[in-house]
Each structure stands twice: as structure tokens, then as C-alpha cells.
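Quick one before lunch.
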Amino acid sequence: MAGNWKMFKSPAETTTFFEKFLPLVAASHHAEVVICAPFIDLAAAIGATQGSAVAIGGQNLHWAKEGAFTGEISGPMLKAIGCQYVIVGHSERRQFFGETDETVLKRTVAALEVGLTPIVCVGEMLAEREANRTNEVLKTQFDGGIGGLTPDQFSRMVIAYEPVWAIGTGKVATPEMAADAHRALRGSCEARFGREASQAVRILYGGSVKPDNVQGLMAQPEIDGGLVGGASLEAGSFAGVVNF
Ligand code: 13P
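Model of the 1,3-dihydroxyacetonephosphate complex:
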């Protein structure tokens, strides 16, 4: 269960969140729990979660190790501060910051090279779903991004299916819709990496996951976890998602 805080919270708010959140999930051992925080909050988040089972991640990384890239953060930097995960290719980055399948692949490889677990996002826009193009879009995103990994790299990553029309809209995909998309993605994984690897890879669903709809989603065997935006910002609601 991964939380994506997007562009929310100060370091002080981060500390307050974990003071409330950690006791609420202390007895939860059924899921790996991750918070992907803004860069400026990572130090506070990693400090607050030391000795707990909660892992911390970034929300993006540059593919170079270092260099003249004003405003960017690299994989080795995220690793050095204590991150274990990083989100790659979120639809907001694809829509607003020029992310392409090609740059998604470069960032994913850079994350893996430094030992971070990339959570690679794919998902269709509303118009694409309405035109019955969901599986085709997912296949193109898979082939251009994740499909370019080696089998070893693939075994160390996590996929997140996030239909763009369900993000921040309160319009959650039905469990069946999400499971269909996960099956299509797992099919692409099987075609490229074989049956065993495709069964082992974790595919998270993201898009308006809340405490009151998480159970139905997680009842689908195809859905291995969640990537949670809005509901991860408040300790009680994210704990409600984790402890479904
Ligand atoms: P919401 O849960 O706010 O819809 O956001 C989903 C998301 O984009 C997580 O990465």
C-alpha cells in the first residue's frame, strides 16, 4: 500500500502525520507500507519512520547520477537520504511535464541501478477508455517502458495501474474494471517476461482509493495493492486503507 502525497505537506506536517499514523499501523503485517513524499519532506519522513516497517519513497528521479540539471533529483540522492522506493511515470508527469514512455524507461533503469524499487505508473485517459482503447494504450505504455527492462530488472519493480479519469475525481474504477486492466497488463508481462515473472510482479491499483472502497478492490486476486493519493494525506484515512 503506497501513499503518493503529490505536492502536499511541509516537513513539520510530515512529522505530525507519522506521529499519528505509525501507532495506527504498528500491528499491520499483511502489507508493505510506503509513503512517497515531496523531496523536501523526505528527511523528516525517513527520520520519523526509522525503526518502523514503513518505507519512504520519492515521486520522481532524473536518470543521470548527477550533473547540470537544475531542479532535478537523482537516484543516488534518493538512496543517500534513505528512500527505498520511487514513483516513475505518474500520469501527472506524463500530462504536465512531458514524460514519455522513453523517459519512463530511463528513469526506471536509473532507479533499479541504485537499488530503489520503482513504482511505474500506466493508465488510460477518459477519451481512450470511451473509445475502447484501454488495453491498446496500456500495451503501448508497457512496450515502450517496462517492456524494455531485462528480466532481472523487471523482477525488482512494481507496476501501478492508474486510470487517469479516476485520479482525484472520486470516480473509482469498479473492481471488475480494474481487474480487467490488471489482467491485460499481466498478459503483456507474460508475453515479454514469461509466466512465472508475470505472476510474481505486483500490480497496484490507483485512482480514488478510499477506506470505504479498498476492500472491494483488494478482493480481486489480480489487484496486489493500492497507490493512494488524497486518502494518504490524513493518518486516519491512510491507516483505514492499509488496515482494510
Ligand atoms: P487519488 O487517490 O487522489 O485519486 O490519486 C491517485 C494517484 O494519482 C496516486 O498516485
